[in-house]
Amino acid sequence: xxxxxxxxxxxxxxxxxxxxxxxxxxxxxxxxxxxxxxxxxxxxxxxxxxxxxxxxxxxxxxxxxxxxxxxxxxxxxxxxxxxxxxxxxxxxxxxxxxxxxxxxxxxxxxxxxxxxxxxxxxxxxxxxxxxxxxxxxxxxxxxxxxxxxxxxxxxxxxxxxxxxxxxxxxxxxxxxxxxxxxxxxxxxxxxxxxxxxxxxxxxxxxxxxxxxxxxxxxxxxxxxxxxxxxxxxxxxxxxxxxxxxxxxxxxxxxxxxxxxxxxxxxxxxxxxxxxxxxxxxxxxxxxxxxxxxxxxxxxxxxxxxxxxxxxxx
Length: 313
Known about the structure:
Elements lengths: L2 E7 L4 H11 L6 E5 L5 E5 L6 E6 L6 H17 L4 E6 L18 H12 L3 E5 L14 E4 L2 H9 L6 E5 L5 H11 L2 E8 L8 E6 L6 E9 L3 H12 L4 E9 L5 H7 L4 E5 L13 E4 L2 H13 L9
Parallel strand pairs: 1-4, 4-5, 5-6, 6-7, 8-9, 8-11, 11-12, 12-13, 13-14
Antiparallel strand pairs: 2-3, 9-10
Helix pairs in contact: 1-8, 4-5
């Protein structure tokens, strides 16, 4: 059996790491992670980790490539310091959309990233709401994928509002939206879109399901530039939806996302803290829910050798 738990973090989301430690009741591990003036990343672990059960918490959020390299270097440092087991805790897994070769001469970066993490020395992965389920199979080590569905759906159920319809912004999000709808006792609608082969803007073709006069919540795994959720909100408004909400796990909110959301016909956008929300992105209509208790419970179950299956729902 491994010795006591150790939790360390890079610079991507130290607030979430501290919240997880507070839930477990242990201090955050002491480490230095910084860049020299030549942009080389340096890591020093400032406490013993020999034969301990170590968890490195680092979402691959902006700056994405720096966050990834910090994780890899931290894992290497811990491995060379004789850590007993190293679990890479990745609340948000970037490059999730490059999960297949859908054009000639393009990479499968999600698989490459999995190889790098394994080669660095991680023994297992703990993550949340991967963009594509097959990414689990890219790893040759155990992967536990948590879901924020319960956290998000509970928030909307507690509003005790009526006449909900859960909307999938595209066919790929239909299963996630159906599960969400079942949890809050709502019906389901799907927006049918067509995306040109050259990667241009998608075109909304149809709304499948009864939405007119109802209260809609758009459900997806992430909001990146907010193009999909804004397009869905506009077509829902045109079809007579009275109130529009959005719920997603990962608030990437890159590029024009904040400006788009500020002016969008959306009453509230609910995200989680897998990715930190900096002050300049904090809008009154954005609500952030914490997934720290969920990750803390998963870490304690993994450490104790008990099942984490109940947390997948």
